[in-house]
# Entry
Amino acid sequence: MSPRKSAAEARATRGRIIDRGIAIASVEGLEGLTIGRLATDLGMSKAGVLGHFGTKETLQLAVLEGASAVFVRAVWHPAEDAAPGLPRLRALCEAWIGYLEHERAVFPGGCLFTTASVEFDARGGRVRDAVARLSRVWRRRLAAELRQAVAAGELPADTDPEQVTYELVGCYLALNQELQLLADPEAPARTRRALDRLLAPAAADHSR
Amino acid sequence: MSPRKSAAEARATRGRIIDRGIAIASVEGLEGLTIGRLATDLGMSKAGVLGHFGTKETLQLAVLEGASAVFVRAVWHPAEDAAPGLPRLRALCEAWIGYLEHERAVFPGGCLFTTASVEFDARGGRVRDAVARLSRVWRRRLAAELRQAVAAGELPADTDPEQVTYELVGCYLALNQELQLLADPEAPARTRRALDRLLAPAAADHSR
DNA sequence: TTAGCTTCCGATCGGTCGGTTGCTATATTC
DNA sequence: GAATATAGCAACCGACCGATCGGAAGCTAA
# Structure
């Protein structure tokens, strides 16, 4: 009927598939994301959708990568302008709250990584590996930023970066649950209170 | 071939279905739990399995209820012997860690409530309502226990029970992720360190 | 002895899954 | 302008999904 052909248009189509896939997967999960549903939503045939990826697993990985780009753009990029250390951590955490609270247009079902993490944490396969890799990357970045803040004397010298990272991740998992499952409007305020405790500046008795 | 008939045996069969269903659902999710898989695992026919529940949704609710009983037995019951307030909170939290760390025989794929919570948090329906209800019940119990500890002077007087409950839930969501997705053996120690900070006794400058 | 109830099975239903095939129509390359 | 490459479609595949059906087997009560 309407065979689009140019390479540029094909890339655009691929992008539309991934965008729609992110939206569906954030609600139904990466396993619940089906090719037929994707095709119907986009007014395409199943073969037309699958032709861009070959395999559902490859499609899932592409959606995951697309979601990762959204996350980086929404959370990490806005914080890059802030000064390294505590200010950047603060900006990062605030953007992270906004991402979970307002990014409904992109992730109507909440953070796709939380969903995918729980969905695949008990399985094998490339998707699980990709989810675990992304999770580790972001934890490492958080810990590195925390180390900078400690080195700069902005956080107590005895701060354990891995420990604070763990507790930060917990905060955001809980925030996602309170927003999505319990629809609790108090959740962002509670998160900020927890952050105030976790990222409390070092007592000003340092030399520098 | 082997049609069991007595009411007692039927109840036993129902229990076996639920037990197996819990194990499957903790790995595949409540949606990924299929009647055919259940029937194969138990050496039954699909009709025999579904006959006990009528509907997959009813089966999911029964599995959820069964998992709730396991959780109560593993986490709440052991803590009932402890004195109300802080000691009971401590016992509760320690049992909770053990539940996530060692209950692999019952929940091979990690805590079923975490899985179900994320799986249904963006949908409607009775299963989602049941998950949200259980989540609220346990948060309320935690908060009530925290209030007791504050009233007894075991925790600082300005402690916000809902706030601490939120942070406790976050700790256990993070623990589940580190155990299941990242297979990090340090996770329980990190959880205990976080608990030490969250449940630090009030400074002993109180009168009573 | 027998009627009625329940448990469970085998067979089957319509529907959807991921994936394949053959084709057309366009874009690109020479 | 001819040859090649490819985006996308329609049709279809075997497998599996949840669900329904009639009936067989065994318990219980009259």
